[in-house]
Design brief:
The complex is a heterodimer of chains A (about 160) and B (about 180). With about 160 residues, chain A is mainly α. Chain A contains seven helices and no strands. Chain B has eight helices and no strands. Chain B is elongated, with a radius of gyration of 19 Å. The two termini of chain B are about 20 Å apart. The chains are: A mainly alpha (about 160), B mainly alpha (about 180).
């Protein structure tokens, strides 16, 4: 299968070999932890405002404008460090059910972001500063919360199966 | 000191709490990753509370939020997260005390964590007895910035060190 050959080639590149065989792997992993904490820490603050349980004195659009960029910084760093760890054993990760689950959950989180912007945020000006948010906003926040917890769990589980 | 650690480690190794933890490890599917996920989510809560308060003090995050209100609203999350971190962390220690008590990285982690928690407590305490404490004079603003800058380094160090506990042999080769 051509994909298997590609994973083999990738694993045998100098970079992948260096990561897998040295202290590069734990370094990437520890940076990955900090990055994921930044993603989850900032996204959860937005989610809880969406659900309507915290920071209710701030407009939703302000909270999201000031916090979502931090989540993106964390996400980019997590993706770079995650890719680094992935290429050290790409075939094993690709076949790892926990890792596959993590990718599916990440894709669902992405879809939730799209649905949030195209549906929930349309008309946000009517309830932006309200302490009580509409049901669609609560649902988007709750789904995001559950998906990100799932991403962390599946990610941590990945290391136990590899 | 080594003797005390050795007897503490032996005490845990022989206690019935350890039997419970070992039982859970063997019989609850995914017990290790689940407990580690609780630990990671609590780290995210630390990031979303005390770290963002430090970033706010340093003037780089959440410009429209009010510092005094942030401290009151977010620091309780830090305390609850630390409780959760302690509980989930103790489970790891009980399971394999030797792996932690004789691990230099574990020592480094707590050497960084202690002042980090102390600084968070000072920020919380002063603001509780006098809301707006850290914003009213130049001296206090400068002090807050110094505390925030040092705290940032400490918290990031704690998170790094936590992951490196499992890899200490990369740093300290056994004699």
């Amino acid at each position: 299968m051509p994909l298997d050959e590609f994973w083999d080639w990738l694993q045998n590149t100098d970079l992948a070999f260096a990561i897998g065989a040295t202290w590069w792997f734990p370094l990437l992993e520890s940076i990955h932890v900090i990055a994921l904490a930044l993603v989850v820490g900032s996204i959860v603050m937005v989610d809880l405002r969406l659900i309507g349980v915290t920071a209710r004195s701030y407009a939703l659009t302000r909270i999201s404008r000031e916090l979502v960029p931090w989540a993106w910084v964390g996400f980019v760093v997590a993706t770079i460090t995650g890719t680094g760890m992935f290429i050290s054993r790409p075939g094993a990760y690709a076949a790892n059910p926990a890792f596959q689950t993590k990718l599916v959950l990440l894709a669902l989180a992405g879809l939730n972001v799209v649905a949030f912007h195209t549906r929930v945020m349309r008309g946000v000006e009517q309830w932006d500063t309200d302490a009580l948010t509409p049901a669609s906003a609560k649902l988007a926040g709750l789904i995001s919360l559950i998906l990100w917890i799932g991403v962390v769990l599946a990610g941590r589980w990945t290391g136990h199966l590899n | 000191m080594t003797d005390i650690l050795a007897s503490l480690s032996a005490f845990i190794a022989e206690s019935s709490v350890r039997e419970l933890v070992i039982y859970l490890l063997r019989n609850v599917p995914g017990f290790p990753p689940i407990i580690q996920t609780v630990h990671l989510l609590a780290i995210a809560a630390v990031m979303g509370s005390i770290v963002f308060i430090n970033l706010k003090i340093l003037g780089v995050a959440v410009p429209s939020q009010r510092l005094s209100e942030m401290i009151q609203r977010l620091l309780p999350w830090t305390w609850w997260a630390l409780l959760l971190l302690a509980i989930s962390g103790v489970v790891f220690i009980i399971a394999r005390p030797d792996k932690y008590f004789f691990n230099p990285v574990f020592g480094i982690k707590f050497a960084l964590l202690t002042p980090a928690v102390l600084f968070a407590w000072i920020i919380h305490r002063k603001n509780s007895s006098e809301p707006g404490y850290w914003e009213v004079s130049v001296l206090r603003r400068v002090s807050a910035r110094a505390i925030a800058a040092v705290s940032m380094i400490l918290w990031l160090g704690v998170m790094m060190a936590g992951r490196w506990i499992a890899y200490y042999d990369y740093l300290f080769w056994p004699d």
